[in-house]
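Exercise: predict the fold of this chain.
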Amino acid sequence: MTDHRECRTRSQSWNRRTERPRPSRGIPGGLARTLTVLALLAAIAGCGERGPSEPDSPQNLPPDLAVSDTIGVGGAPTYLAAQSAADRSLTYVSASPGSLPGAVSVTITNLASGSSEVALTWDGGFDPVALSAESGDEVEIVVKFSDGTTATYRMIVPPRRRPRVVRTRPPKGETDVVINATMILVFSEPMDGSTVTTATVQLLHDGDPVEGSVTLSENGLQGEFVPVERLQLGGDYTLVITGGVLDVDGDPLEEEVRVTFTTESSPPASSYLAFACGSNSGYICGMNADGTDWVNLNNTTSPGNDRFPKWSPDGSKIAFMSNPDDNWDIFVMNGDGTDVVNLTNLQSDDLGHQWSPDGSKIAFVSDRDGNWEIYVMNADGSDQVNLTQSPSRDGSVAWSPDGSKIAFMSERDGNGEIYVMNPDGTGVTNLTNTGSNEGGPVWSPDGSKIAFVAWTAEWPDIYVMNADGTGRANLTNARLTGAYPAWSPDGSKIAFMANRDYNAEIYVMNADGTGLMNLTRSLGHEDTGPAWSPDGSLIAFESHAQGSGNFEIYVMKADGTGVANLTKSQLVDEDNPAWRPQR
């Protein structure tokens, strides 16, 4: 069988060589061209090049590239069923990791109806993509590869096909799996939730079942197995998905799936997180990065709803906002929850607190003068000064790493723009100066650049510019609707949230926008608020399952592996994770 990479290389080579055909020596030009064409047809016979109505044979398709049978829209997830009143049924197209080596994106089109969807690929595959289709429709799959070439495949939507497992996390043969990992399994089409249980999805250790819970996402595509206890260090485990798992039509899996993996041999280095815990009457909590030693830091001292903990640069104190008197104030306490002090204590709303790099001051946003302004105060709450004194709205405070500048958003020119000023409020400069709305400035660790969010079209994008406003560049370019940019500690990468495939995910890219990667790849969760650990090895984020009402704190490695739910409360919100700085 001809390899699909070889086929696309031949096709690309032919396109280059036939821009201007050259007659062979001693053969008339017309005959030479005819022979060349015949030679071409013979060379690519095994490449699946055919007329628009003839689908590829299975022998010419990449392994594990699949089109499911259809399901009625009435039985599809709500957000898909509502995509078009004209859609009577859906098919799901997917490819397991490694099926399309070097692929960067896939365009999937129903040639019968013209409906089309685009998917980004990861590890040479892509998760299920829903497409409006009827049984017998022809689906065209155009794959774009990192070297600029493409490959096209055509498949018929089958009248019946059994589902399969597209991928698992961890994958088969993975080593160094974290001991508090959540097991993820992605199906090729929506499954019947009543069949995805601890009887059909099991984790085995030395042949014995590991106690845990099993859930299926609202869209029916992603299952999770969460062990009750942490796994053993250096242990060999097998995740088993049996044929008792059925799709919504009652069809069982193509085959039982067994995924073997080994856990890490030693625990990770110690690190610590503060986070908001509880809904409506929340507190500030703390725990180790593996979820152990969870403690409610201020449950006896704060009657308000506490949110957004921010560590002082030396890691000794936590600033947070709370509303004990029905307005938001800024509080500070020691890292162990003692000595809670209300720093603002006015009948205005004070929020958006940010420590100066030396820990001596806190900048914040307040409406005490009738509109939102930028203020600064000493770390003990003294000397509160209005820095902006503008009749327009100001917000989104960010100190430069050396403390010499404060970046912020202001609407003083009629739309949201990114400004900088000195810490005393002088030297105000508009850095963006465009007609679009910008906000959320974040300095790079070396202070040379600023990442921010701009609404240049219907959706927000992540931009980066030099600290003086020059070199503005759109990094996401309307592909991902990005928000919440977070620089890695070494400044080489930017993590962010993007709402692309009907749900929010955590992505990461190089600081110039290249190397885009979806880290969470969660079909059934909304993931947001990425926060890098001080050493850059981990990313904490908040997540909640689609349809559920509470957020949980998760941690994963910087490459997206080792995803672990640290809180597992299932009842109240845990969000706003903040890493304690290394001392």
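Check your answer against the key: The mean pLDDT is 84.
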